[in-house]
Amino acid sequence: YITFILRYRLGVLAVILAATFVFGGIASQGVYSSALAKLFFGEKHPGFLRYRERIREFANDETAIVIYKDEHLFSAASLARLAQAVQGIEALPEIRRVDSLLNAQHVFGEEETLHVEKYAEEALAHPARTARILQQMTQDALYGGLLISEDGQHAAVMIELEPVDELAGEAVPPLINAIMRIFDQAGFPPHALHRVGFTSSMADIVSQMDFNIKRLFPI
């Protein structure tokens, strides 16, 4: 057997390469993932149907979170970059809602009047109060340590996906890549960005699966 392979090694390599291209072409057409909820419950399960109704009524639990670092979160330049990124992300058809520093608001009473103000709008209107506004938000129970870090130098952008009956795993990496390109186009340096959350993790997992199945496996 070994003697045969060595004697006809060029022919053997040609057969192996031909088989590699054939099976590589077949693997590239494969669909290897599905919506996790559907995988666990099945599309006809009453629990799954009730789950779909609830996320349409309240909020989808499929979210992507992008955290960015900026030493001047409430500066006009930083908020302008954030506004450009949020606008671009909201324009994607797969996105339902984006929460960030731009729509974070606080409620307070003054002279028997209830006021609702957005932190970002207040910072833009009164630049001299930026430090106080930043400290106030970091101490806000709704946002401190969640939407904004306790040191006031990191903020999160919470991206909620539209609830769909089935979001195949193959569609997740292109969506996350599109979101990250929007941040890049808005002027966020890549080293200052960090992706977290189930959706972002799933994108990396699917990308590795795709690489293994469509490249390493045929070889």
What does it look like?
The structure is a single chain. With 219 residues, this protein is an alpha+beta fold. The chain contains nine helices and six strands, in the order H-H-H-H-E-H-E-E-E-H-H-E-H-E-H. A four-stranded antiparallel β-sheet has the order 2-5-1-6. A two-stranded antiparallel sheet has the order 3-4. Strand 3 and strand 4 form a beta hairpin. The longest helix is centred in the first third of the chain and has 20 residues, at 9-28. It is elongated and about 95 Å long. The model has no long low-confidence stretch (mean pLDDT 86).
Q: Which consecutive residue ranges, at least 5 long each, have pLDDT under 50?
A: none
Q: Fraction of residues in helices?
A: 40-55%
Q: What class do helices, strands and sheet pairing give?
A: alpha+beta
Main-sheet strand order equals: 2-5-1-6
Record field, number of beta strands = 6
Overall pLDDT score: 86
Instruction: Provide the gyration radius in Å.
Output: 24 Å
Portion of residues in beta strands equals 15-25%
Following the backbone from N to C, one meets helices and strands in this order, namely: HHHHEHEEEHHEHEH
Shape: elongated
Q: Which sheet architecture does the biggest sheet show?
A: 4 strands, antiparallel
- Give the helix tally: 9
